[in-house]
Amino acid sequence: MSTVLEVNNLSISFGGLRAVDDFNINIKNGALYGLIGPNGAGKTTVFNLLTGVYKPDEGKIFLEGENITGKSTMDINKAGIARTFQNIRLFKNLTVLDNVKAGLHNSFGYNTVTGILRLPKYYRVEKEMDEKAMELLKVFDLDNEALYLASNLPYGKQRKLEIARALATDPKLLLLDEPAAGMNPNETKELMDTIMLLKNEFKKTILLIEHDMKLVSGICEELTVLNFGSVLCQGKTSSVLSDPEVIKAYLGDD
Amino acid sequence: MKKIKMSKHLKDNLTTFSIVTVAFIIVEILKATGHISSLMKGLLVPVCIYIICAIALNLCVGILGELSLGHAGFMCIGAFSGAFFSKCTQDVITFAPLRFTLAIIIGALFAALFGFLIGIPVLRLKGDYLAIVTLAFGEIIKNVINVLYVGKDTDGFRLSLKDTVSLHLSGEGKIIINGAQGITGTPNDSSFEVGFVLILITLIIVLNLINSRDGRAIMSIRDNTIAAESIGINITGYKLMAFTISAGLAGIAGVLYAHNLNSLMAQPKNFGYNMSITILLFVVLGGIGNIRGSVIAAVVLTLLPELLRGLADYRMLIYAIVLIVLMIFNWSPKILELRKKYSIKGLIGAKKAGEVK
């Protein structure tokens, strides 16, 4: 199986703090990969490095063999990485439908003049975008709320909408930053089904950060455990979760 | 589901267009039957200018979400470049509508160009800092034009930043821009009807832009820049685009202004920061991001000082009090409730709504 994401010796420091130190990861096409670790271990920093929010001090990032190290967030998204955020970042004053259509921005195009003069192409492309967006919303069971303002959605649905928006950019790799945070057990169960759907139906490669061990052990095939910015353990989920070092650092031994 | 959405923003836009059109027709009828005082007649074009400016600024403040206090400067550029063109071609193009159309296009393009050039450094800033820097640029534009001397003789155009003498014009040469005295003798091509057409054009540009792919990108930047970047939207590009279009539209208002007067001067009164603040006032009072609101606020607040003229010395005092009261109560929940209850839409649609429930 081909490699989607390859990260070599990634490091970044903030002042004297080495937030991520010599981070390596190799994600195969179609994998569902988990990134876990205690609070402050540097998981979100890894996401920010992968998506170009921070530029790494050292190391290289390859997406399907293409070097994307140091590229801007916009270009990295165009190259094929989309993400969600730990603290939800929706376009709150846009409708649910428009949020997803904003995600379709680079997949469907017409120029500004066409938009202002409402040439036939405008109506055709907008219709296509509407259809595609509704299709995505249906997957996430949001189609009935399509015309709500994003800020009026309940919390769980806001999280789903964020995933839908990221998916709309048609990424090769989807990064989910704590998708189950703040969800109740039912919502988490539903979310697990949705993530499995993304993997099986949409054939997406997924890297996710999560604290909910039920979700992690339930769906992730491989895991990397971060602790104080460096990799503590890496491998198959079952073997990682039974590793004594991991249990000591993260899960807590009794 | 999709149909509802399409018809909703279409209906919203149509309402805005019909309000403007109906207002125009009413004023035209009143004008024809002689029910409008000459004072009010003199205000008709300024009202159009303010409406266009308010819509332009709302694109920048409400849709893009960046506070600009320099729009009077862009208006100034539009006014001077438009007037300059008209003055130069007065003898060549005798057909006034064509000349004025070209002047408007040139004014808009020049203002947009300056919007683009100023936008490149300025849009890196955010919030208060952006407001202060745009304010400064607005003042710079006005002051540079105040010391600009341009003349024309047989050898072509001559330019100076000192005085008319240093232009070294030959015998038949004439001065076009005379420093602080500005441009005199601009043809009076502006009229209420032209203003109305320009308002419609501005509305079409802005409303259609908002409801397009680009508008969505611009509003997504306003709502969450980091998320917009993460879905591959070109932040710098779209910020510049909205700012440039906004500046260009302010330029159109400037051209209209220039062709409404015999002499055009860049003074603190017309192109100073006071003007920028006045336009911002229309935008804020009309509702940030609400284009129709901007139009209504611009009309009401331009006519109000004139309607209060009877109060003589207390005029501006009362105007200020009215502003404060409006600011406090315009968006208060109780007033919103009342507005909903007594709105035209509410009265017409009352029965329909009842059926649905």
Give a quick summary of the entry:
Chain A is α/β, with parallel strands linked by helices and 254 residues long.
Structure, explained:
The complex is a heterodimer of chains A (254) and B (357). In chain A, 39% of the residues lie in helices and 25% in strands. With 254 residues, chain A is an alpha/beta fold. In chain A, strand 4 and strand 5 (66-67) form a beta hairpin. In chain A, helix 3 packs across helix 5 (120-139), helix 3 (96-103) runs parallel beside helix 6 (155-168) and helix 5 (120-139) packs across helix 6 (155-168). The longest helix of chain A has 20 residues, at 120-139. Chain A is globular and about 60 Å long. Chain B has 357 residues and is mainly α. Chain B has one domain. Chain B is built from 15 helices and 5 strands. Chain B has helices at residues 2-32, 38-63, 71-89, 96-122, 127-146, 192-210, 213-223, 225-230, 235-258, 268-271, 273-286, 291-307, 315-329, 333-342, 344-356, and strands at residues 149-153, 156-160, 174-178, 183-184, 263-264. In chain B, strands 2-1-3 form a 3-stranded antiparallel sheet, covered by helices on one side. A two-stranded antiparallel ribbon of chain B has the order 4-5. In chain B, strand 1 (149-153) and strand 2 (156-160) form a beta hairpin. In chain B, helix 2 (38-63) packs antiparallel against helix 9, helix 2 packs across helix 11 and helix 3 runs antiparallel to helix 4 (96-122). The longest helix of chain B has 31 residues, at 2-32. Chain B starts with a helix and ends with a helix. The chains are: A alpha/beta (254), B mainly alpha (357).
Instruction: Provide the residue-averaged pLDDT of chain B.
Output: 87
How is the largest sheet of chain A built, in terms of strand order?
6-7-8-3-9-10
What count of structural domains of chain A?
2
What is the gyration radius of chain B calculated from CA atoms?
Answer: 22 Å
Question: What structural class do you assign from the helix and strand content of chain A?
Answer: alpha/beta
Please provide the ordered H/E string of secondary-structure elements of chain B: HHHHHEEEEHHHHEHHHHHH
Total of DSSP H or I helical runs spanning 4+ residues of chain A: 10
**Strand segment tally of chain B:** 5
Which two protein chains have the largest interface (Cβ within 8 Å of the partner's Cβ), and how many residues from each? A-B, 46 and 32 residues
Number of domains of chain B: 1
